[in-house]
Amino acid sequence: MTFWGILFTILLVGGLAISEYEKQKKRRQAKIDLYNRTVQGRAIQILESLSLLDTTKNLGVLSRRIDFIAKTYGSLIQASAIDLYHGNISKVIGENELPDSKISLLTTPDMVSMATYCGESIVGVYERYVVEQTAVMNALKTATAKQNRKNKMIEKGEFVKQLFETYGIPDNGHAERIHAIQKSIGTKSEISTK
Predict the structure, then answer these.
(1) For an engineered disulfide with 169, which of 48, 107, 164, 188 has Cβ 3.0 to 4.6 Å away?
(2) Looking at residue 194, what is its pLDDT?
């Protein structure tokens, strides 16, 4: 083989090696970019769910958001073991004004803290629901309609209590708080015409 043949072979093999290295580098960067988008997207979804829990009066929304958090928060916990996690979370936090309670749920994710937050939120949603329904009840004209509304609010309290068991959220006195709210509504009567 001639000098030029050897040089051409070296350049060809070297070029192929560099080309393969560049392909691997691009694949690695694509995986990192996917990880970054996934972590940031998941964190934003969790934040949106937490914001809904802080404001909603709708018990259906409460149930769906708790279910979503229960199914997805674990992926943030797993992702937090990777060094890139905190940079991604810092970006999400920087783009949103968040209270410390929500920041800690993202920067150091753990199920116990999230369960505590969700437990407080469940009680808060039920309280807002009762306030709203009490206003509706007070506008009703008949005693039967008012009693039916009370019955419905009390029954929904039982549904809310069940969420703690369904999602393994520690009670931490929440059942007593919900019971106190139910008691403030009045007593359940069999006047209901279902």
Answers:
(1) 164
(2) 42
Main-chain dihedrals φ then ψ at residue 143, nearest 5 degrees: -65, -35
pLDDT digits (tens, 9 = 90+) for 110-126: 999 999 999 999 999 99
DSSP character at residue 191: T
Chain centroid to CA 103: 13
Rounded-to-integer distance, Cα 85 and Cα 185, Å: 46
User: Distances from the Cα of 25 to the Cαs of 12, 20, 29, 31, 168, in angstroms?
Assistant: 20, 9, 6, 10, 43
Start-end of H helices in the chain: 3-55, 59-79, 85-95, 100-107, 111-139, 143-166, 174-185
> Can you give the pLDDT at residue 5?
67
Residues of the chain with pLDDT under 50: 191-194
pLDDT score recorded for residue 23: 77
